[in-house]
Amino acid sequence: MGRDLLPPARPDGRLDRGLAGPGVVKLAEIDTANLLFNAPAEVSLSGTADGETWFELLPRTRLQPDTPHRFRIEDAPVATHVRVDIHPDGGLARVRLHGFLSGA
User: Fold this and answer.
1) What 8-state DSSP symbol labels residue 6?
2) Average confidence (pLDDT) over 37-42
3) Rounded to a whole number, what is the distance in angstroms from the first to the last CA of the chain?
4) Is the whole model's pTM more than 0.85, yes or no?
5) Could you please report the per-residue DSSP string of 10-52?
6) Cβ contact 31:90 at 8 Å
7) What is the DSSP letter of 41?
8) Most buried among 2, 21, 24, 50, by the most CB within 10 A?
């Protein structure tokens, strides 16, 4: 059986992860499957290319429990890392980002 490869989120409900390479995020899948009473109320996504300046990919958006959510990301700049913020706290079954690698 597979093991969870990601450590738990920080106490402030934030999770920072590097992408495979510099790229542009076009679609975010946020899944709260099987989380009826522990799903976060809202989620937001931020990206960075330099590790210091963060830009908004997905504004604070309402989530439903036990539901896969798909969000289009419009006009996103190139990012190397993405930060997931959940508000107030709770669990996520899956975070999947789709896009393409940039030539940079």
Assistant:
1) S
2) 90
3) 37
4) no
5) PTTSEEEEEEEEEEEEEEEEEE-TT-SSS--SEEEEEEESSSS
6) no
7) S
8) 24
